[in-house]
Amino acid sequence: QVQLVESGGDSVQAGGSLRLSCAASGYTVPDYYLGWFRQAPGKEREGVAVISAQGSWTDYADSVQGRFTISRENARGMLYLHMNDLKPEDTAMYYCARARRYLGSLRASDYDYWGQGTQVTVSS
């Protein structure tokens, strides 16, 4: 079955960096877009970044543009989110997700499988 397992979350100070990883398995990884989402307490889940099936196209939320970079290694079934210049407002649970076939956006409704999440906490 499809599995997505995130790792790399941590507590850091503002201005710091983290790299989140997501191990994807149970399906043909190179056939699907993948995305990163986040959800802070009391807030809706929001799309952070998305990457096309072969990695040639990416898109980012305005709030992370220029600070976060999404990448993937299809041969290893891995998805990454490199986060720089972290801010307290980046504090959230971060999830990786697989898009439905032929879809890929920052809308959660376009995704059908989700990981359990990894916590990122940024202190000022």
Can you walk through the features of this model?
This protein has 124 residues and is an all-beta fold. It is 0% helix and 49% strand. It is built from no helices and 11 strands. It has strands at 3-7, 11-13, 18-25, 34-39, 46-51, 58-60, 68-73, 78-83, 92-99, 111-114, 118-123. Strands 2, 4, 5, 6, 9, 10 and 11 form a 7-stranded mixed β-sheet that branches. Strands 1-3-8-7 form a 4-stranded antiparallel β-sheet, with no helix packed on it.
Features:
124 residues, mainly beta, four-stranded antiparallel β-sheet
Largest sheet composition? 7 strands, mixed
Number of strands: 11
Q: Which class best fits the helix and strand makeup? A: mainly beta
- Residue runs with pLDDT of under 50 for 5 or more positions: none
N-to-C span: 40 Å
Order of helices and strands: EEEEEEEEEEE
General shape: globular
Number of helices: 0
Mean pLDDT comes to 96
Helix content: under 10%
| Rg, nearest Å | 13 Å
What fraction of residues sit in β-strands? Answer: over 45%
